[in-house]
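chain below, 225 aa
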Amino acid sequence: MADPKISVYSLSELKNTTDDALPNYLTSLKFKQSHFLTDVRLGLGYSAVAIAGIAFWADHKLGWDATKHWTLLAVVAYFILNGALTYWIWGVEKGKVFTGEINDTLVGANTSSVNKHKPIYNLRVRYEKQGKKPQQMNISAPFTRWFDSDGFFVAAPFQQWLASEIPVIGEADPKKVASSAASVESNKDSRKVENAVNDTRVDPQPNGASPSTAARSRKTKKTHS
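prediction:
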């Protein structure tokens, strides 16, 4: 089935589609994904729903007088579970898109939120080979590197970027590792995209000038310099 088309102007869609593509690629390389975080989140959520459902059923069948003390306990338990679920999502998972291992190497990948003025994908990767010191690295690239102008995700350049930047992925997929020259050109392209975004960014103008006038002014200054 073809990848769905998304809006290239929606940073959340660009990020979410990229987040979904990362574990799909790694599992295709025989990385064994851990679902522990997801299982705990689902367990907390379903437990809270089950408690609410049982409390409703008991009140309906037995009446308020017979169940009021149990209902109070159910309400307390429900809020505790929801509090734990909120903490788990924002305090433990914290943007994790992949946790797993390959060949005795533990791998974790986190993404950060995308700045609305910079369509750049930021990825923090931590991996630890057995008996060695953990390694952590931060990499970034513009979404235009793996999304075409129509909004379709192109897997090959995304996979090449991961394999070229992250050693443990490059070892698992050496055919996708780009040459050093290609990496240099890629970094230049990333900087060009970021600069272009900054040039067209709309900032408030204290002197009342229109955004388009301000943008032309910035371009004129760059030309003269």
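The longest strand covers residues 120-129. The chain has a mean pLDDT of 82.
thats it, cya
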